[in-house]
Fold this protein.
Amino acid sequence: MLAQLDSLKAEALAILATANDEAALEAARVNFLGKKGSLTTLSAGMRDVPVDQKKEVGAKLNEVRIAITEAIESKQAALQSAKDAASVAGIDATLPGRPGYGVGTLHPLTKIRDLAVSTLRRMGFVLAEGPEIETEWHCFDALNTPADHPARNEKDTFYLPDGRLLRTHTSSVQVRTMESVKSLPIRIIAPGAAYRRDEIDATHLSVFNQLEGLYVDKEVSLADLKGTLEFFFREIFGPQTKVRFRPHFFPFTEPSFEIDILLEVKGKEPRWIEIAGCGMVDPAVFDEIAKKRGDDLLGGEKVTGFAFGLGLDRLAMILHGITDIRHLIENDTRFLGQFA
Ligand code: DAH
């Protein structure tokens, strides 16, 4: 058996030395090491080797298997490097590159979203998300929006045949979060798409981008709301930015405000422009969600909270002086390249 193994090794190595393509190499592997290969067949003979010779024969078997395996591997590596060399033959890597392929840049919307998210994360907000196809309950009912509210109109909202809808604001993520959290505080932000059946013009698209925020705990106050959002807008628009809270109405907050910033463009009269909606979460919202949860984490006027929502497209437009929102979706690199 020892002699047989030696001659098998010699035979295998000789054949492998002349195997000059992958098919020949694979055939040799199957012939020697495969399930029915000669080495495999020989090893079956181990069972008839007298006990006192088993150790020696076993060691030899191993030696032959390793020798053949290594020969196959080194041949494989040699074939691969020959192939690699052939594929770059004739290419002069020292020639200068071809110009013309500009380096990509982040989309202005991506940049404003990243800036808004990182600013709010520094204040302890974490990201949350919810589906863009929503139920009426998550988008409206749980947010204290009456059945006859104009936003629920078929003219304004995209409804699916099954009664669900494309969310008209990211406020539905407030509901999704409050429905499922296990403990307080809740401090989330949710950037994402919102959909409305608006006529498309310089300031409206039927898909746009919002960022929602929600902070709920035992003693969240209006002062927290003002401090957080003033800080936020000064981080985005600069430390001197004037921010004003103007009383307004939203069904899901009480009191509610619209936030304006004073826009000062060189050569123009300064003017206040609306930039976000916000308010203290209406207890009716907590109650409705507490009913759905079936526990008392949010119910019984035990908690307070503030919420806000802003348009990211609008933020980008104000920040960069973009006058037509449609530029943001046209993917014209002459436009996009300006924000690099
Ligand atoms: N969802 C409102 C909208 O799309 C914006 C908004 C207003 C969100 C007040 C809020 C809020 O969270 O408190 O117009």
About this structure: The beta strands are 126-127, 133-134, 165-166, 186-195, 207-217, 243-250, 253-263, 271-281, 304-311. The chain has two domains: 2-83, 108-339. The chain has a mean pLDDT of 93. The two ends are 74 Å apart (CA to CA).
